[in-house]
TrEMBL record:
Membrane-crossing segments per the record: 12-34, 88-107, 112-130
Name by which UniProt lists this protein: Uncharacterized protein
Species in which this protein is naturally found: Halogeometricum pallidum JCM 14848
Keyword Transmembrane helix found: yes
Keywords: Membrane, Transmembrane, Transmembrane helix
Domain of life assignment: Archaea
Length: 156
């Protein structure tokens, strides 16, 4: 092995390690390790109407709460009509699998699998740019650096 190839492999492994670290942090963030991820407000009204239908008395009830992905496993209650906890949990697991697969494939030199995880990460980042995509952005960038380092031939 000559020096340029060795440095490209080190670059790929370093970028894969950074992708795993950032992806792990984002996974923990989605699961709620650093605070709630999604907050909700529920409005309900209860009351009675008079017999002639002209007078109605209603009392509004406002309920608020916050949740994260771990609430699915803990069984914590969300809003009356459902919440985002199951969605947050699902995307956290997708992020963890994507980063683990991409990091392992980059570390072991599997170029095509690394590129596949980059394409999946870019698709999720672009589609979810206003919500979940920001959690995928940095790990995808680091995996793309690793994939490029695995794909470039060293100059002699």
């Amino acid at each position: 092995m000559d020096v340029p190839e060795l440095s490209l492999r080190r670059l790929a492994r370093g970028a894969a390690a950074l992708a795993c670290l950032v992806g792990g942090y984002n996974f923990l963030s989605l699961m709620g390790a650093f605070g709630p991820v999604s907050c909700w407000t529920g409005y309900t009204a209860s009351g009675s109407a008079s017999s002639n239908g002209t007078e109605t008395t209603t009392t509004p009830t406002i309920s608020r709460g916050c949740e994260s992905g771990i609430d699915v496993l803990l069984g914590a209650g969300g809003p009356p009509g459902g919440g985002n906890a199951s969605v947050l949990f699902s995307w956290a697991v997708v992020l963890l699998v994507l980063v683990a697969l991409g990091g392992y494939s980059a570390w072991t030199g599997r170029r095509y699998v690394t590129w596949a995880t980059v394409v999946a990460g870019v698709a999720i980042t672009v589609i979810g740019v206003f919500s979940i995509g920001w959690y995928f952005l940095l790990p995808t960038l680091f995996l793309s650096v690793a994939a490029l380092a695995l794909s470039v031939r060293p100059r002699n």
